[in-house]
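Task card 7
Instruction: Convert sequence to structure tokens.
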Amino acid sequence: MPALEVSNSVVLTQSEAIVAWLDERYAGSPLLGDNADIRASVMEIVNIPGCDVHPLQGLRLSRWLQDENVPAHVFHAIAQRAVSEGLHACEQLLQRAGNGRYCFGDQPCAADIWLARQLVNARRHGLDTRQYRRLDEIEGACLQLDAFRRILLSDA
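Output:
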């Protein structure tokens, strides 16, 4: 679980809250976008993996299903479907976003962080991500950056 201690009395433990705090604190490099339209589009992409996909393919659901003696292949099928549908939705949204190196231009943003991580999870669940041309291009651009490589390749 990520955590960011911002003061003696404030520790942020949710990824979206951490990114929002960083975006506010270091405004020169906006992670959430520099206008309302881009911010809404970034949050749209962030929420697909964060809200729609992750709860259906994460370790918490896997453990709950194990506790209920549900066969592992059921979790695997649920996870694959959730990830596949989520990536398809992201691909469709990003087709309209333009041709920048990253999700919304030539600077990485929060959408790239969530998307790149979700692509790693997709492969963990046995999905071929090459079918998502735009997502594949974005991931390639992200992997050219050391920060992304360190995080994404450390547990791949």
